[in-house]
Write a structure and sequence with these properties.
This protein is of the alpha/beta class. It has 13 helices and ten strands. It starts with a helix and ends in a 7-residue tail after the last helix.
Length: about 270
Amino acid sequence: MAFIDKLARAWKANNSLVCVGLDPDTSRFPESVESQDEPIYEFNKAIIDATHDLVCAYKPQIAHYAAESAESQLESTIAYIKTTYPDVPIILDAKRGDIGSTAQMYATEVFERYAADAVTVSPYLGFDSFEPFLKYKDRGVILLCRTSNAGAADLQDLMVDAMPLYEKVATLAAQKWNVNGNCLLVVGATWPAQLAKIRGIVGDMPLLVPGVGAQGGDVEKLVRAGQTKAGTGLIISSSRAILYASSGDDFAQAARRETEKLRDQINQHRAVLS
């Protein structure tokens, strides 16, 4: 099944636009988890079991695994989701961006080694840097557009062809790059005005929206700015606020409470509840 279709089904089945970011920080694990042979996998597994019916996607961030030499635990995490909760799509947050054979190797890594349903990529080296990803027609390719960090304006607001660069990226994605219908964009929750502009450019293209929770994005503003007429179109990601809602052995139950709270808060502002 194509990623876009899988995402739409998850939106509907769980009545949720919430994506849980699986960004493990072993220094914040409870001792009972930290002492296990594969602590990252066990932590993730508990979070997934507790939240799988409340989310539209999971988003592991690859750096959190590579820094711990824990790529095998990332593979195990993805395999667990695919085996146990196969209807929940997996976005690998890798932000890859390179050219030529290197770009092809990154695409192979993401979609064949890790078997992710979608990946985040940087478009700032141009079309040929992410074309190898787009050739996987059943997978999602999520282009950085207007990111949630404070320094985003340093480059993304520069004027190009009488428009900010982030609008240029959105325009190219909507009008030129999305030939296989598998493009998405990253747009930070911290910029609702820009989010509204991008929604106007790209129509119903899904948007990955980080920046709620620990980064302080306003849920009501982002939903009203970014949702489609159907009340969907958004993958609203939260990581730390959910993963570390408790530092004790009840961390999974606390994560469920936070996920449910965010889902319900989002749904209060959706135009149409599916």
